[in-house]
């Protein structure tokens, strides 16, 4: 007992954690919370069916992902405007989605007030062959990414939807517009399609509970409930040019705060910076899509030069305005007219070190 009482208790000094380490921990926690709970509204509150439905066709487990509620909420302003233009309301507007996953699409639109939604577990392509597609006012869908579903969908949109002058809302990955089949099929409509692109966030998709983790999305093996393999956005067409202009007007009017801004406002962004400030942007052509969100195979996608390079380009352009006949000015013009790609490639190369010439002194 004496020996135990005589022993001195050793207390280890507390390790001080730096502020930088604390910030790194906070960032890691934010990333985990962002991946798991991206947005309470963007995920379905409860699965539509707990058991796997019996599909009358072959399916790929990787295609089973439900679109988030937020995606349908973003196009609500367009659906309301179109319903008014044809003399209908939310409750009477009929919507058709041919691709069935777990039935959550219908629940999401019902929450927004759209009660006439047709989304059943049936073979869409057999319906096309037998010409038994139900009547609808608006075509909304998020197709499977595998096989040739994208091409078949675009063929149907071209042959049926565009001929009937019906609006469509297609939630597709950002690489679709770069594919050759998209350009060939939608050749006559490329200049009329709108692109509704999330800038400040990203759409996350949730696989149903009955999806096998090994056969389904790789995110399930990592313990995640949602997945987002590609940056996706809406491909929109109002049915004709007049309806398209109405959708554009509705978007910009909803973003303007005062009536004075609405009167003086043109139906486009002032510059690229204003577009990137938006939470979700409406691009009226492919060329307006921000390069950060373009598809990987986009030939026009290029890295934006740094501030020094942009200043140098401005100075070079201003020098090009003043023309002169001297050889020195002509050489400057040739150097200034070099393409951005050549200047970018030259900057990536390592600077060549000039070797000093040997000097021999003869006595």
Give the structure's gist in a few sentences.
The protein has a domain at 63-293: 3-Layer(aba) Sandwich (Rossmann fold). Helix content is 38%, strand content 9%. It has 15 helices and seven strands.
Features:
single chain; 363 residues; alpha/beta; Rossmann fold; 15 helices; disordered C terminus
Write the layout of secondary structure elements.
Layout: H1 2-6, H2 19-36, H3 69-74, H4 76-85, E1 94-96, H5 104-111, E2 116-118, H6 124-130, E3 138-141, H7 149-161, E4 168-173, H8 180-185, E5 194-198, H9 218-221, E6 232-237, H10 241-255, H11 259-264, H12 272-277, E7 280-283, H13 307-321, H14 327-336, H15 340-348
Parallel strand pairs: 1-2, 1-3, 3-4
Antiparallel strand pairs: 4-6, 5-6, 5-7
Give a verbal description of the structure.
The chain has about 375 residues and is of the alpha/beta class. The chain has a domain at about 65-295: 3-Layer(aba) Sandwich (Rossmann fold), CATH 3.40.50. Helix content is about 40%, strand content about 10%. The chain is built from 15 helices and 7 strands. The protein has a 7-stranded mixed sheet with strand order 2-1-3-4-6-5-7, with helices on one face. α4 (about 75-85) packs across α10 (about 240-255). It is globular and about 65 Å long. The relative contact order is 0.10.
């Amino acid at each position: 007992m004496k020996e135990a009482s005589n022993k001195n208790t050793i207390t280890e000094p507390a390790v001080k954690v730096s502020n930088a380490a604390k910030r790194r921990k906070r960032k890691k926690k934010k990333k985990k919370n962002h991946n798991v709970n991206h947005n309470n509204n963007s995920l379905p509150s409860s699965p539509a069916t707990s058991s796997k439905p019996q599909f009358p066709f072959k399916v790929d487990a990787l295609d089973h992902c439900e679109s988030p509620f937020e995606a349908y909420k973003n196009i609500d302003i367009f659906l309301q405007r179109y319903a008014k233009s044809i003399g209908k309301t939310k409750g009477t507007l009929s919507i058709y989605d041919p691709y069935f996953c777990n039935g959550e699409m219908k629940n999401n639109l019902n929450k927004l007030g759209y009660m006439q939604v047709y989304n059943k577990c049936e073979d869409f392509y057999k319906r096309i062959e037998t010409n038994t597609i139900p009547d609808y006012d608006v075509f909304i869908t998020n197709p499977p990414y595998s096989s040739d579903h994208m091409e078949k969908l675009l063929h149907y949109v071209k042959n049926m939807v565009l001929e009937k002058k019906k609006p469509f809302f297609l939630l597709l990955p950002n690489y679709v517009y770069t594919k050759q089949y998209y350009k060939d099929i939608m050749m006559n409509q490329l200049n009329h399609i709108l692109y509704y692109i999330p800038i400040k966030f990203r759409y996350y998709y949730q696989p149903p509970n009955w999806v096998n983790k090994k056969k389904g999305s790789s995110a399930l093996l990592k313990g995640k409930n949602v997945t987002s393999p590609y940056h996706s956005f809406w491909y929109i067409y109002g049915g004709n040019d007049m309806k398209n202009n109405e959708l554009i007007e509705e978007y910009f009017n909803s973003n303007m705060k005062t009536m004075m801004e609405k009167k003086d406002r043109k139906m486009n962004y002032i510059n690229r910076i204003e577009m990137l400030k938006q939470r979700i942007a409406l691009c009226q052509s492919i060329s307006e899509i921000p390069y950060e969100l373009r598809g990987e195979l986009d030939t026009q996608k290029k890295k934006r030069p740094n501030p020094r390079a942009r200043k140098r380009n401005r100075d070079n352009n201003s020098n090009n305005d003043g023309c002169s006949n001297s050889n020195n000015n002509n050489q400057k013009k040739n150097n200034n007219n070099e393409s951005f790609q050549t200047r970018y490639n030259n900057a990536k190369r390592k600077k060549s070190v000039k070797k000093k010439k040997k000097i021999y002194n003869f006595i």
